[in-house]
Amino acid sequence: MEHNYKVIDATSFSIDEIVKLVNDQYLSCFNKGETKHDYYCGITNNLDKRMEEHRCNDFEIVDDRVFAWNCENVDVAAEVEKRLDKLGFDIGDTKTLGNGGVENSTIVYLLKKGNAVNY
């Protein structure tokens, strides 16, 4: 299922600028009683496919709202994700660089997690 999410071109932005953009987006969506851990940040090379994987295997996506930024390369995207983890966002399994993102995973995304998917 394709959702055609809007991806902002951040290829000319610094890592710090992208982290600020993601955090500012979170602040604009923040509701009383929520924390950054209620939001998931990740990296991918295919936003539609990755969101479908989350829906099927992990959690619902609240209001089907996903915010995304295309970075210059996977190294920038992975560093943004790492810094977002330090800010308190849920980034999933942290055992691998980019949490298993592949070499062309340049899209950083933010979403609000819904209910966990029952297996």
TL;DR?
With 119 residues, this protein is an alpha+beta fold. 33% of the residues lie in helices and 26% in strands.
Your description of this structure?
The chain has 119 residues and is of the alpha+beta class. The protein has one domain (7-116). It is built from three helices and four strands. The protein has a four-stranded mixed β-sheet. The mean pLDDT is 89.
Radius of gyration: 13 Å
Overall average pLDDT? 89
From the spread of the alpha carbons, the general shape counts as: globular
DSSP helix count? 3
Task: Count up the domains.
Answer: 1
Order of helices and strands: EHEHEHE
**Low-pLDDT regions:** none
Q: Record the strand order, biggest sheet.
A: 1-3-4-2
| Beta strands, count | 4
Q: Pairing-aware structural class of the strands and helices?
A: alpha+beta
Largest beta-sheet details: 4 strands, mixed
How much strand?
25-35%
Terminal residue distance: 20 Å
Which range best describes the helical content: under 10%, 10-25%, 25-40%, 40-55%, 55-70% or over 70%?
A: 25-40%
Layout of SSEs?
Elements: E1 7-9, H1 15-29, E2 39-44, H2 47-57, E3 59-70, H3 74-86, E4 107-116
Which features would summarize this protein structure in a list?
3 helices; 4-stranded mixed sheet; 119 residues; 4 strands; alpha+beta; 33% helix
